[in-house]
Amino acid sequence: MATGKSIFDDYQIPMFLGVAAFFFAGMLGIVGGVAFFTDDSSPLRNMCGIVLVLLIVGGTVLMLIGLKGRKRQQDLERVADLLKAYRRIEVTKLAQKMDVTPMEAEYTIAECIGQGLVEGYIDRREGEFFTKEALYQVMDIDSCPKCGAPTDDLYLVGEEIRCEYCDSIVMAISETREKSKG
After folding, report:
1. Could you give the angle at which helices 91-98 and 102-114 cross, rounded to 10 degrees?
2. According to the model, what pLDDT value does residue 10 have?
3. CA-CA distance, 61 to 171, in Å (whole number)?
4. CA 130 from chain center: how many Å?
5. Band (182; pLDDT cuts 50, 70, 90)
């Protein structure tokens, strides 16, 4: 996804600025409080009040932006953990789990990849996401050894493979070769 960065991409900056605004508001509140209670005619009194309100409002807005950005980052990290755990997942299934549209799920996957949270690829033909490690775990299965039916799907090591025609469990060629060696 080739979009520009938004203010939510680095949530730590608005959070820091919000905390700094609250700190300065507290300091100004002390100084302004002294001016407020000591002299009624001081122009410092009105200016301190206005600046104090601006610091509190600005600090609140910045803190909210930072909290929203932090939540977005946590959501991305959760999705990346899910993608790593599944190794391979259909984009539509991920969209259902996230309660978003498949296009939004693809954008989220792209954002996870772009931030380096997960390494992988989206197979647009199959509509699936594969982690980089899963691509090295693809098994070579041409047909069912029991009924001879062809298999067109990709399978990963560790997945249970059932023939869609005879419902028997298919053993991968790579597993067969390893077992015959031992």
Report:
1. 100
2. 76
3. 58
4. 16
5. very low
Rounded Cα distance between 163 and 48, Å, is: 77
Q: 61 is written with which tokens?
A: 């807005």
What is the C-alpha to C-alpha distance for residues 20 and 118, in angstroms, rounded to an integer? 34
Higher per-residue pLDDT: 144 or 71: 71
Count of other CB atoms within 10 angstroms of residue 118: 19
User: In this structure, what token pair is assigned to residue 108?
Assistant: 């989220």
Q: Which one is predicted more confidently, 84 or 8?
A: 84
Q: Domains in the chain and their CATH numbers?
A: 12-134 (1.10.10.10), 137-182 (no CATH)
Q: How far is CA 89 from CA 27, 81, 119, 121, 162, in A?
A: 53, 12, 14, 11, 18
pLDDT classification of 93: cutoffs 50, 70, 90? very high
Average pLDDT over residues 61-77: 91
Torsion of CA 172, 178, 181, 182, to 10 degrees: -110
Question: What is the amino acid identity at position 39?
Answer: D
